Amino acid sequence: MGQERSHAQVGEEWLERHLATAGKTKEQLAQKLWEKSWTAVAELCDDSFEEHVLPIPSEMTGLHLHGLNVNGREFNTLAQPVLDDFATEWGFIKTESITFDSIQDVREFCEEAGKTGKWNGIAIEGFVVRTTIGPRPPDVGHDTPPYPPGSSFFFKVKFDEPYMMYRDWREITKALLSAKQKGNIASARISKARLKRKETLEYKHWVEKEILCNPKAFIHYQNNRGIIAVREKFLKWRETPEGERLAGSMRPVTPPPQYGPKPTKTIIVPIGVPGCGM
Question: Cβ distance 77 to 69 under 8 Å?
């Protein structure tokens, strides 16, 4: 087996493909970004290299252009129309977007999309909301964002179903595989919070047996390949008589009670450069 390719290598391969379709070169792209003092931010979506929680349609495989950030100390990203034009000119996949005029409109749209977990007929994990910091209201004291008015600002909306459930299945599988590699699959440490859904208990029961009986299906799982195939096999198994019998016997795990007063404040600490997709 050859050496595994890195994200950087696969990303560069896709970069060359995209630029070729637009009749451009890497040198021309570098010159453009240098002249404008921009950093282009793209997400690599390629299930043949590394699967995400949800499958990527074949026509959406490649580099999705998410941002053109002005190089500087403060986060400053260009508007979506500029981003779309740049993607078209240089052959990247455009990030589909829709514009709303208020946070209430954004909330209602996300709640409606969250009922199906789809947008434009494609299953999605959620949305990245691109906005700016508004003017500071008078007499609010120190209860204001730590950014000046007009600053670029992003935040994410993630759907619980089915994305978070599928993500739990992925992490449970990885924990079981790690425990098996150490010699005892039963020693896997799995948070009870991940087992609060009955479907997840069924999955854990099924995948433990599957790992032991069909180990070849999990050879590349820790490298994020084979995740979707394993999940789809389980979903088909749930429809069999054996799966239906198991479903009738499972009860979700109740997380332990939380003692003490509930927290009244939350501290949000950035763990990545704003706008980089972290």
Answer: yes
| pLDDT tens-place string over residues 193-232 | 888 888 999 999 999 999 999 999 999 999 899 999 999 9
The two structure tokens encoding residue 220: 């590349």
Structure confidence by residue, pLDDT tens digits, 81-121:
999 999 999 999 999 999 999 999 999 999 999 888 889 88
Cβ atoms 170, 54 nearer than 8 A: no
Give the pair of three-digit tokens for residue 80: 């979506």
pTM value is 0.76
Among residues 92, 93, 95, 90, the alpha carbon closest in space to that of 27 is found at 90
Domains of the chain: 1-97 (3.30.470), 99-137+144-151 (no CATH), 163-249 (no CATH)
Distances (CA, A) of 140 to 105, 126, 136, 153: 24, 32, 8, 20
